[in-house]
Design a protein that fits this description.
Structural class: alpha+beta
Distance between the termini: 52 Å
Order of helices and strands: EEHEEEEHHHHEEHEEEEHEHEHHHHHHH
Shape: globular
Strand content: 15-25%
Radius of gyration: 24 Å
Helix content: 25-40%
Number of helices: 15
């Protein structure tokens, strides 16, 4: 691959949200050598729809540019390549098992500015499941009807958790929905126009400038794009910055609170002092809860704190937060909020016949295990006793990330007596009525 050729492991963004009018034709049109398309995007949509009907997902593998113009592109099955993992246990497999699948199509730009399929391989070395295609990352879709319901409920002031619960009831359970609550939140963020009112951007900037004139150590950063569109905001005063120098070993970070006017997640950094009291270490307003947004906020906070990252940070199970933390706070120990995890036990395990006994065994393994070996033994005994749990995706994910939340795995790090994000949530309640 030369310098102009790029590789990407991420699925094409345009394939993440499909309209409900697609993929209803019973006849599956297969890709063939020599097929022509008006654009590379049209080619992707064709192959992505084909993949959906066949029960697999795709990703962009390579693209090549010449004089700044895209001239070649390849799409492969998402199971292309090999997994890199040190574990060989069945309980610790990655969520998307790669199999070295060779299925792919390649296309090149022709003289008439059309795209022609030049290389093709339709054979997979794994089983495909069309009935489960909606759960694959590349095919997560929010149909138009659902999108309208979510947006109308949001406009009416109905909380997202209520809307998500109603959709789950209508769909026959959370496991049947091809999206999660955070996907809906991000969809709303993208649909809304975060236009500042007349003079709001200037007023906010003037306020921060005035604060900085009074206190030279006041720090702020605004992320404004387009014509007056507010994307992200971060601010911190001298008192918070000085407190961080003494009590910045551990912070909690939570975004469950939403302001009323712009519906932007309020994101406080909270610590604890030597009296066990909550202390504010920084504030942010975010346009959405995606990894790029979290990375921007964490970088702004790190710049504010002179590049000194916390020793530990406690958050919920957000995958976007996890990626951003690994990117910005590279040496920080990341712990998941234990309360949030235990709260999800009924939602994920209540359907099992022995739910009460399973819940009891799980709590015993989590709370009573004094060392990792003891936890492993109790967890394995639970899975052996109730074999159906071995196929539970939620439990498998928790086990893979056990070093982020099981007390006996995280106790080697100083956490200032905290295991949840409760301090951040109580700080949210304190700011209710002030942040507007």
């Amino acid at each position: 691959m030369n310098g102009n050729e790029l590789e990407s492991e991420e699925p094409e963004k345009s394939g993440n949200v499909l309209d409900d009018d697609s993929n209803h034709d019973d006849q599956i049109v297969e890709p063939k050598l020599g097929m022509m398309f008006e654009s590379a995007d049209e080619l992707f949509e064709f192959y992505n729809n084909y993949a959906y009907r066949k029960g697999f997902s795709i990703k962009k593998r390579t693209c090549k540019k010449k004089n700044g113009v895209l001239v070649h592109v390849s799409y492969t099955c998402s199971k292309e390549g090999k997994n890199i993992t040190a574990s060989n246990t069945l309980l610790n497999l990655p969520p998307t098992q790669r199999t070295g699948c060779k299925a792919k199509i390649s296309s090149r730009l022709c003289a008439d500015d059309k795209w022609m399929i030049s290389i093709i391989s339709l054979q997979h070395n794994h089983l495909n499941s069309p009935s489960k295609a909606r759960h694959l990352r590349g095919h997560k879709r929010i149909i138009t009807t659902t999108k309208k319901i979510v947006l109308l409920n949001d406009k009416a002031g109905i909380r997202m958790c209520k809307t998500y619960g109603a959709l789950a009831v209508e769909g026959g359970g959370y496991e049947n929905l091809p999206y999660d609550e955070k996907t809906l939140r991000n969809m709303i963020a993208r649909e809304k126009i975060l236009e500042l009112g007349e003079g709001d951007a200037t007023a906010l900037l003037d306020h921060f400038t005035n604060m900085q004139n009074k206190d030279p150590n006041f720090f702020y950063r605004l992320d404004i794009y387009g014509e007056g569109r507010l994307k992200n905001v971060f601010w911190d005063d001298n008192r918070c910055r000085e407190a961080y120098k003494k009590f910045g070993e551990v912070v909690t970070f939570d975004t469950t609170y939403l302001t009323n006017k712009y519906d932007m997640p309020f994101a406080p950094f909270v610590g604890v002092n030597h009296h066990g009291q909550s202390i504010l270490l920084g504030c942010g307003l975010l346009s959405n809860e995606e990894k790029e947004t979290f990375a921007w906020l964490f970088k702004a906070w790190l710049d504010c704190m002179n590049g000194i990252a916390p020793g530990g940070i406690i958050t919920d199970q957000s995958g976007a937060m996890k990626i951003a933390i690994e990117l910005v706070f590279k040496d920080t120990k990341h712990r998941w909020c234990l309360w949030h995890i235990m709260k999800k036990i009924p939602e994920n395990l209540r359907r099992h016949d022995n739910y009460v006994r399973i819940k009891s065994r799980m709590k015993k393994a989590i709370y009573d295990s004094q060392c990792p070996v003891e936890f492993e033994e109790r967890w394995s005994e639970m899975l052996e006793k109730y074999e159906s749990l071995k196929q539970n995706k939620w439990l498998r994910k928790l086990y893979r990330e056990k070093d982020r939340w099981v007390p006996c795995f995280v106790k080697t790090t100083f956490w200032a007596g905290m295991s949840t994000t409760q301090r951040s949530e109580s700080m949210n309640a304190f700011f209710d009525g002030y942040v507007h």
